[in-house]
Every structure is written in C-alpha cells, then in structure tokens.
Specification:
Elements lengths: L3 H14 L4 H10 L1 H13 L9 H14 L4 H13 L4 H15 L1 H15 L14
Helix pairs in contact: 1-2, 1-3, 2-3, 4-5, 4-6, 4-7, 5-7, 6-7
Length: 134
C-alpha cells in the first residue's frame, strides 16, 4: 500500500503535467516520495514555468526531440497528448513529424508516426507489426 505522501506526490505529478509515466511511479517507489517531489519541483521550475515559449510550442519541441532521439513510443505519446491538450491539433503534430522527418531519418520518423497513431488513431492497426511474409 502506498503512503499518503507518495499518493499525494503521484497525484501532483499528473496534475502538473497532464500525464504520469511509469518512470514517475518507479522513482516514487524506488527512491521514495521525496525524490519524486524533487523531480516535480524541478519540472515545475523549468519545464512548466511561464516564459517566452508557450506550452504548445514547448511540447511540439519536446515531441521533435523525443522522435529525433528514437525515444520510446509510449513516452512520445505523453508529449503528443500534452501538445494536444495545449492546443496543437493532431494534424499540426503530423505536420511537425513530416517537417522534421527528412532531418531525423525514416526509422525515427516511423516511431513518431506510431506514437501519433497510438495517440490519435488507435483504431488503425499498429505500424510495428509484420503484416505478411512470403
């Protein structure tokens, strides 16, 4: 069973970002609620702080960074979700993927397309599958 401090900090994680990732739960359980609190405080002070770049643009930039680095699809989904919540349409996010695709390479772009599909069109079968072998 989770401590009240841990539950509160995990809830704060979701409230701050609009999502919670498995890494957040891992940090809370492995290192304790104080470690997650420190992580959340840093997130609040840097990633979420008001500045010249609005949240939508920040999230689109993070999506590009995640795609370009070959990040996990699940992590890309979180930032696509956050970009969408901040006002980016699925079509704008797809346009970003199309724009940077030539610079980041096809393998990374395909992972980005899979994250987009999983986020906005889960009704379409996954890209990451073998359809047919002959």
């Amino acid at each position: 069973m989770m401590s009240t401090d841990m539950e509160r900090e995990l809830e704060r994680t979701t409230a701050l970002r609009g999502f919670r990732y498995g890494l957040h739960d891992f940090v809370a359980q492995f290192s304790g609620p104080e470690a997650l609190k420190k992580h959340n405080d840093n997130t609040e002070a840097n990633y979420l702080k008001e500045g010249l770049i609005d949240r939508k643009t920040k999230e689109l930039l993070i999506v590009v960074a995640c795609v370009a680095s070959g990040d996990l699809v699940s992590h890309m989904q979180l930032h696509m979700h956050a970009a969408h919540k901040a006002g980016a349409s699925p079509e704008e996010i797809m346009e970003v993927l199309d724009l940077v695709g030539g610079w980041i390479g096809n393998v990374a772009k395909i992972k980005g397309l899979e994250a987009w599909r999983a986020t906005f069109r889960p009704d379409i079968p996954t890209i990451d599958r073998v359809v047919e072998l002959r």
